[in-house]
């Protein structure tokens, strides 16, 4: 039985193809997320394995040798075939996976409803990661993002999901005691919880209510609205809650809204498609389900 010929390491071949295509070790290093030294080392290892130089190192760049020039189209064709074969056999797995980045507090609404999505789309695998602020991330790291803010961002497709109202919200226990929250005057005797970074806050609500700013309690600063929600459930104080996020707890009797006055939120939740023309069918199904669920 004849033995198969030994093959060079795939990483060496990928590095050679990238360096030859760009005629630059530096550009290949950026594309492959390697250092320039690592690219140079892998090319040297491949040349040593083949016992022939593939590049001529010129004072102002690279040039393929005759062997390198003959080798390049064959390696490129082989890598393309490997890619197509992998996509043909396993591509459906990736297409059925949706990576969603979610601003933390939105999870209060989303997570209890995901079972509805799974019943409709049992074959779609969700990968959900929680974010609070907007970091620098690579587009390829996620398929969709649910982001809190003003909606003014550089992504190609930004869809507004909510149009929220902010209203004082607290645990039912705060309607009892020495200063029950049944009149505006008693509000100054309770801790007001402030969500750091939000554009709309208690000062805006006090202004709309005609209350003097000096009655604003120092309260507590919390930089995550889901943490603020949990603190409010415990009876710690009063938060200016977004109706979209507090509605479930209000309906369940876990929270109450002691005053009717609500103000419009300067920020809302938005659905971000980082590469609108490359969104997978599975991601589009999740996006459609999300918008329909919020609207219903």
The low-confidence parts are: none
Tell me the strand percentage band.
15-25%
Largest sheet: 5 strands, mixed
- Which CATH architecture of the largest domain would you pick? 3-Layer(aba) Sandwich
Q: What is the structural class?
A: alpha/beta
Q: Mean of residue pLDDT?
A: 88
Gyration radius (Cα, Å) is: 29 Å
Give the helix level as a range of percent: 25-40%
CATH topology of the largest domain: D-Maltodextrin-Binding Protein, domain 2
Order of helices and strands: HHHEEHEHHEEEEEHEHEHEEH
How would you sum up the global shape? elongated
How many strand units? 12
Strand order of the largest sheet: 4-3-5-12-6
CATH class of the largest domain: Alpha Beta
**What is the CA-CA span between the terminal residues?**
67 Å
Number of separate domains: 3
Number of helices: 10
CATH homologous group name of the largest domain: Periplasmic binding protein-like II
Tell me what the structure shows.
By secondary structure, this protein is an alpha/beta fold. It folds into three domains: 10-90, Arc Repressor Mutant, subunit A, CATH 1.10.10; 96-163 and 268-295, D-Maltodextrin-Binding Protein, domain 2; 165-264, Periplasmic binding protein-like II (D-Maltodextrin-Binding Protein, domain 2), CATH 3.40.190.10. It contains ten helices and twelve strands. Strands 4-3-5-12-6 form a five-stranded mixed β-sheet.
In short:
The chain is an alpha/beta fold. 40% of the residues lie in helices and 19% in strands.
């Amino acid at each position: 039985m004849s033995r198969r010929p030994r093959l060079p390491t795939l990483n060496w071949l990928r590095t050679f193809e990238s360096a030859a295509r760009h005629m630059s070790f530096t550009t290949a290093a950026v594309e492959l997320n390697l250092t320039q030294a690592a690219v140079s080392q892998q090319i040297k290892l491949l040349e040593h394995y083949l016992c022939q130089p593939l590049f001529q190192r010129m004072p102002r760049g690279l040039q393929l040798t005759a062997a390198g020039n003959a080798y390049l189209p064959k390696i490129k064709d082989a890598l393309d075939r490997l890619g197509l074969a992998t996509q043909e056999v396993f591509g459906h797995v990736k297409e059925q996976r949706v990576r969603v980045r979610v601003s933390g507090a939105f999870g209060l609404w989303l997570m209890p409803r995901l079972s509805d999505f799974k019943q409709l789309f049992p074959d779609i695998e969700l990968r959900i990661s929680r974010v609070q602020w907007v970091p620098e991330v690579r587009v390829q790291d996620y398929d969709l993002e649910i982001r809190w803010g003003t909606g003014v961002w550089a992504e190609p497709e930004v869809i507004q999901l909510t149009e929220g109202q902010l209203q004082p919200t607290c645990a039912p226990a705060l309607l009892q005691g020495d200063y029950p929250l049944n009149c505006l005057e008693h509000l100054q005797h309770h801790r007001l919880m402030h969500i750091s970074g939000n554009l709309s806050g208690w000062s805006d609500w006090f202004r709309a209510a005609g209350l003097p700013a000096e009655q604003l309690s120092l309260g507590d600063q919390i930089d995550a609205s889901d943490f603020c929600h949990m603190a409010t459930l415990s009876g710690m104080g009063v938060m200016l809650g977004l109706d979209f996020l507090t509605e479930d707890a209000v309906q369940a009797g876990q929270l109450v809204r002691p005053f009717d006055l609500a103000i419009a939120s300067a920020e809302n939740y938005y659905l971000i498609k980082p590469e609108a023309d490359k969104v997978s069918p599975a991601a589009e199904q999740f996006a459609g389900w999300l918008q329909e669920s919020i609207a219903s």
